[in-house]
Amino acid sequence: MEKAKKRKIGIISSIILTLLIIFGVVSASALAENNSKHVDTWERVKRLGKIRWGVKADTKLFGLMDTKTGQPEGFDVDIAKALTVQLSKQSGVPMQADFTIVTSNTRIQLLKNANIDGFIATATITPEREKVIDFSNSYFKAGQSILVKKGSGIKSIKDLNNSKSTIIGVVGSNSVINVKKFAPKAKVLALGDYGQAMAALKAGQGQALTTDNGILYGLATENPGYTVVGGTFTSEPYGVAFDNNQPEMVKQTNKALKAIIANGTYNKLIKKWFRGVPGLDWRSLEK
């Protein structure tokens, strides 16, 4: 009886071990297949004849969903289109730009999962991010600031450096990390996207919303009772992002970026999206 029981246990153990080995092989194969998608982004986009760009849909001026067309529009979206045209010329391969909606919190993961080839989504080039993804040269120079209700009496980030203040930001954005350095005594409320963040500010859940000044000016145009104050307190250069170890894709993108600046396309897009924004010197953004 005891021998039969031990034999049964042995058979079950062998089956479990075999299943674990099979699972390990399958998992390794899946990982290898996923990694193979990242071998060479430049070769992949040439082969497919399209670039799958991640762009935002909650950020006025840069990437906002047009409810009439169901398509995102904004400066970042137009930069993606212009780069795609130029990259097509450089490669000699017809290419189209496809768009996938991303947020500050999802953009890197979607890139790592190969759901997108790259993203142009108000992403600041930082040493921490450069450890896991590649960036092009900067295509837009932003700086962090704060948006407050008109008449609040708040004039700069220094006025919020106290335990009674709550500063609202967005999960995954560099601004949430930065603000803790400039107003360490304040509480920080990080929400999912800029729509939620603006709603929280209007509801009185915080005294200010912080992110890059270009994004805040976009929010201010939609919400005239709010204003950007205090100037900028950080430097936030935006870059086009790709998965890590993509030197040829980065090289070709930098070449394309240089070309659209030289031929005047870049400044035309700056004028299109930022001229007339209250409080913003759009000509200072030209290259």
* Class by SSE composition: alpha/beta
Strand arrangement, largest sheet?
5-1-6-13-7
- From the coordinates shown, what is the CATH architecture of the largest domain? 3-Layer(aba) Sandwich
Give me the count of strands: 13
Cα-atom Rg, whole angstroms? 24 Å
Beta content:
15-25%
Morphology call:
globular
H/E element order: HHEEEEHEHEEEEHEHEHEEHH
| Percentage of residues assigned to helices | 40-55%
Output the CATH class name of the largest domain.
Alpha Beta
The tally of helices reads 9
- Low-pLDDT stretches are 16-37
Q: Measure the end-to-end span.
A: 86 Å
Q: What is the CATH topology assignment of the largest domain?
A: D-Maltodextrin-Binding Protein, domain 2
The main pleated sheet reads as: 5 strands, mixed
- Mean residue pLDDT: 89
Give the tally of structural domains. 2
CATH superfamily of the largest domain: Periplasmic binding protein-like II
InterPro entries: Bact_solute-bind_prot3, Solute-binding_3/MltF_N
Family: Belongs to the bacterial solute-binding protein 3 family.
Organism: Oenococcus oeni AWRIB429
Domain Solute-binding protein family 3/N-terminal: 50-277
